[in-house]
Amino acid sequence: MEKEKNSTPGSGLIYGLEDRPPLKDTVFAALQHLLAIFVAIITPPLIISGALGLDIETTGFLVSMALFVSGISTFIQCRKVGPIGCGLLCVQGTSFSFIGPIISAGLTGGLSSVFGATIAASTVEMAISRVLKYTKKIITPLVSGIVVTLIGMSLIKVGITACGGGNKAIENGTFGSMEYLGISALVLVLIIIFNRSSNRYLRMSSIVIGLIVGYIVSWFMGMVDFSSVQDYGGFNVPVPFKYGITFDISAIIGLGLVYLITAIEAYGDVTANSLISGEPVEGEKFVKRASGGILADGFNSMVAGAFNSFPNSIFAQNNGMIQLTGVASRYVGYFIAGFLILLGLFPAVGLVFSLMPDPVLGGATLLMFGTVAAAGIRIIASQNIDRKATLVMALSFSFGLSVELVPGILSQFPEVIRNIFTSGITTGGLTAILANLLIRIKE
């Protein structure tokens, strides 16, 4: 039986944080989140495996473990186990931010070194979570708003690349073809049309409808090749420390620095999620929620390392999904977690998702990433924008977007520095913290 709704009036939510939607509504919302994150979860292990030259069997196992661990991590974030977790509809998955340092660690010390560094360096993020309340002067709403905005802006690049056909299209020279852009536009327009509907079921299923229609149309156009998959069978049993574990100090330092930035990103993601969910973004309750979310980020990454997977972080795109669907119930997260665990154990199910053409996903993710950036702008707009705030924003966006738009600017720096600051989120986030801390203006 459906509980009484407690969503904030005027928040635009159909179901609030503590609401328990009916089963059909819950499954609808969970599937939409799953469709939004599936490719994002499996892409990092695929990229890392390719760079390290791993065989198909190892690659498949790493992809399965990425899904399995994502399910466990998502459950912990949503359920909140003691002090661990934020208690919001937060979905976790393999983080793109760590790809560079992981490849470097893997090339020098193998997978055992990667998983050892993943476990050891996760203590950095867990330590930050325990002193979060003392860092309010450093990680202010202005700083978190800038980071959230940069997260959205950086992800838009991923979305528009998918709209044009993805990396494969870039390689074969078909990127930006009218077929790809037409499919993306169809998905995008369908999502907008159904999202504007007054019927809550159509609104909640807007992204699923857009993706399904796009998938079917692209299949008729010959863009989906099921014959490329030779075997849909198999079952992966999670085996802790399957590839061993070693501790390399340089790998630990490299990942530790990224964990520091991930803590800032997690703070921004929890802030955006709280705002969208109609929850407070300041005060003791929020600080406790943010601390728990960051602690879970680190703890779940430690679990990931034990289960042969890579560091986990909160996915920003799911904040956009909450805003689009109007469903902020954390109970939906339990179903998302269950689906992810099943996908990890039964890789055949995931193969169907992986065949979805990039333009179909691009049409949906482009809109979601834009809503993440908009959420960051809302956080910034809620603050007093004086001369100092203007300078902090100017510096942060300039530096953050610079390395995103012109990554070659770092080409003469040492590889360690390049790996850390290639991300606009990292560069802009650190700039925001330092500028907000150091700039002093007497009005």
Cα radius of gyration in angstroms: 21 Å
Question: What's the β-strand tally?
Answer: 2
What is the rounded distance between the termini? 57 Å
The oligomeric state is single chain
What portion of residues is helical?
A: 55-70%
Summarize the structure.
The protein is mainly α.
Walk me through what this model shows.
It is globular and about 65 Å long. The longest helix is centred in the N-terminal third of the chain and has 32 residues, at 99-130. The chain is mainly α and 443 residues long. The chain is 68% helix and 1% strand. The model has no long low-confidence stretch (mean pLDDT 83). It has helices spanning 23-52, 56-79, 99-130, 141-163, 166-172, 178-195, 200-204, 206-220, 249-276, 284-306, 317-325, 331-345, 347-354, 358-381, 387-405, 415-421, 424-438; strands at 92-94, 312-314. Strands 1-2 form a two-stranded antiparallel sheet.
